[in-house]
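User: Hey, my collaborator sent me this sequence without any context and asked if I could get a structure. I don't really work with proteins. Can you help?
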Amino acid sequence: MNEIASRTIQKTLKALSGTLDWSEPELHVGEGTLRQLPRLLKEKQLKKVLIVTDKGIIQAGLLEQFIMNLDEQGMTYRVFDGIEPNPTIEMCEEIAIHFNSLHADAIIAVGGGSVLDAAKAAGIVITQPEKPLSAFRGLLKVWKKTPYTVMVPTTAGTGSEGTIASVLSSATGNEKYAIMDNVLTPDLAVLDSDLIQTLPKSLIAGPGMDALTHAVEAYIGQSNTAETKEHAKTTVKLMSENLKKVYDGEVDAEARENLLLASYYGGRAFTRAYVGYVHAISHALTAYYNLPHGSTNATVLPHVLRLFGDNIADSLAELAVEAGIENPEGSAVENAKRFIKWVDEMNESMGIAKHIPEIKETDLDGLTEHAAKEAHPLYPVPVIFTRDDIKEAYRIVKGEIE
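Assistant: No problem. I've predicted the 3D structure and written it out in structure-token form, which is a compact way to encode the shape of the chain:
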């Protein structure tokens, strides 16, 4: 598809987006908010809940007090902990089976992005079981409201608790794709800073840079709005002020809370303004090599920003202000370079690789096709790359060329 056709589709979708419901989830923020959730659910007349999580959350004991409080409120519940990284359709279908057998009236997802995405997609299976989940791939194909959904993130990165998207993997594991529809926006989001208090450094760094990538890609794209730009700026500012502090182990509940808010607002920014080539390139890499999405995004981000060149100088210069690293006397181009250098330095300071040497020469055509298929024509990127441009980007990310 040529550039003119892609831009026409993107402009049409941006105009259409103004007619859609962009309501945000009911938001509860602060220390211990998960413990308060059972009382809130009872007030909402929700009596039977399916808790979706993973085995790591159970082993860490993060749900123990929450489950005790459910018992105190006399609520019926079941825990499904079978979610693994890069969730598949089969996992979502299993969630639906448990939901239906319990006759539940709400899904509560507690975990990282994989858990949240799986729970959102399972809602589609529950309400529209006559269609395969793969039929909803892409934009605005769901339409029918899913069950009442509560999102409780245990990492600060994906922002899935505030988005219209669910990202799934194929059964073979070599493809990732998104389902995007406004009806997938969660009903309620709980940002409890206690839940990220004991995260290992890798689960602070990667997700944090993932949230930053959401903000940057939304901000430099051509479908942003005044609201999404403000959300993106908020994310950059909060990440610049808090990510390294939390990574370095400072016990600061406010800093952890700010990371969760940064993730949420990054999600709100890209859920309407979209992402771009960083995500398209990264999704292919995670599908092919099972790499962690957040860290892969972090590695890819500065390379793609450099490829855009001066086309995004003004936007990056504005974000440099939010990051607190701009030179007031410098030009937009200079401050854009300062911003990219800051991203490089953030990655290096948290042990995130500059390159991904795992990329195989024999995979380049497949990776390029995967990324192009995801990005074109929907992503309103500042510059539309050819397939040769995307392949070159992979070579740069690999470290083969500068």
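In plain terms: The first strand starts at residue 26 and ends at 29. You can pass these tokens on to your collaborator as they are.
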